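Q: What does the assembled structure look like for these inputs?
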Amino acid sequence: MTELYDVAAIGNAIVDVISPSSEDFLAEEGLVKGSMALIDDAQAVSLYGRMTAGIEASGGSAANTVAGVASLGGRAAYLGKVADDQLGQVFVHDINAIGVKFDVAPLAGGPATARCLINVTPDGQRTMSTYLGASIHLTPEDIDAAVIESAKIIYLEGYLFDPSDARRAFAKAAGIARASERLIALTLSDSFVVHRHREALLGFIDSEVDILLANEAELTALFETSSFDTAVRSLRGRAKLAAVTRGERGSTVIAGDQIHDIAAVPVEKVVDTTGAGDQYAAGFLFGLAKGRPLDMCGRLGSIAAAEVISHYGPRPQVSLQDLALKAGL
Amino acid sequence: MTELYDVAAIGNAIVDVISPSSEDFLAEEGLVKGSMALIDDAQAVSLYGRMTAGIEASGGSAANTVAGVASLGGRAAYLGKVADDQLGQVFVHDINAIGVKFDVAPLAGGPATARCLINVTPDGQRTMSTYLGASIHLTPEDIDAAVIESAKIIYLEGYLFDPSDARRAFAKAAGIARASERLIALTLSDSFVVHRHREALLGFIDSEVDILLANEAELTALFETSSFDTAVRSLRGRAKLAAVTRGERGSTVIAGDQIHDIAAVPVEKVVDTTGAGDQYAAGFLFGLAKGRPLDMCGRLGSIAAAEVISHYGPRPQVSLQDLALKAGL
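A:
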């Protein structure tokens, strides 16, 4: 089948609600800084009521990544579930507007579009509380085999291990990708997700995953170690290719015995780290799909991540393609 | 009656949808750069469908201003109408979260919460297309006399001259304010509004307005002249106090024979001018309510405006009180 897409992603379709927050507020609310916790509708209403004024922006980890791929000039598709409501319309508009193919039917008569309540502390760190709403109603029937078969890379969120229907959708997509010899990429998403689903994730990595994306905390959680080097050694036997982000220390790309340390692109002020890992993944996967050398893939990731942490919101506000060209990539 | 509020504002309660745009896009869509045009629901859907991905943020000119007053440490109240829908909930959350008193009941079973589709060109200029939705259902019954009677300054949007119910609400509020000897401030809002309602606005200024806020284009439109100096001379006989913003040239405060030219506060990069005039008004009115000298009121306006044009969105993202303290005001 013709490769219509560089990357096709499957994830929880979420609209972000992003507000400045104090460290004290996190403590009062019992929120673990830098993590993602699942909350129900009542908790979402209650927490939102106490948060400061903010902005709303389309989010969802894998959706942010394909938005980044499109911003880099790549061809991308997305599979995820919103409700037929105002925030769902915003999500659909934004993903279509950036040129990502998305045509999963919205959920009617069920829960509202998923919302991620994001509290951003003065150091730019984001702490997420997610009401999954309609997003968990992504079912295997929503997985369009033609989209999976025509993408170079299928990108899956670890977050999808939480809801059971989504996990079946995830398994179906992986099966189709494997059958059509497509590359399968997985992001571990969050260290709490890793704790909840460690065995299942390891099994999936061993059997299905070509490309693993993670941050340092997620990788060390996966191998239950506090040492980054130990985690990297454990990884080598299991994943053909991995890219691990390390905040201001940049990222490490691991391909068997080859290791590339990639510097972070400095930014004047870190405003909001929401989407940093997602945009790194966008640059890295775009580079891979275009056949670039691994260190250049990592640099594309660094450039994309640097753009997104310099403003509120999880997706690029300027053309990443222009930024990459300016950087000579 | 006790003065509970520094400023109570009445305006169209609107959620902004803010997207980057090219100059070409404005031309293709027949949009007049820098202006505000009214559109209906079908036009809103159609235009939104062609806009790029963006962010959503609570807006509405006068609501932005009272949010700014609250951010400066002032006490503020707001009267406006949203629908009982997701964007309405966002509006209510945001205005309450910043500490502005707002308890007008949302509209049930009518049109959706008002949306302002804002296209921001690379120079930071914003061009607005507004679907008034539920906001025009603000009626005289929604005007709580106790709020008006307990505010030092009542702030009214020229935009309210468009919808007829809102204009009656506006007239009621002005009557109560006059009867209780409160100061009445008016913003001309937009040069197209001035063209549509010039005679009515002039009559209202002569009979009711203590403090006039405008930008240069609106003021020259009001007096049908191309000369700023001519407009200022015409103004002197009619408004006791006026503050006129002039973009990067700063502002001019006019009080009879006294004229203060106030410099703009320079910003590194103008990202989005949405809310610049609203935040200037916040600083100016806050200063007046606190009894500051006129030039200091203008400087407070300049500081607030500089903050808001340095990011996407019409309301401050940091504490204006902190910024004012840092500037020694």
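Chain B has a mean pLDDT of 96.
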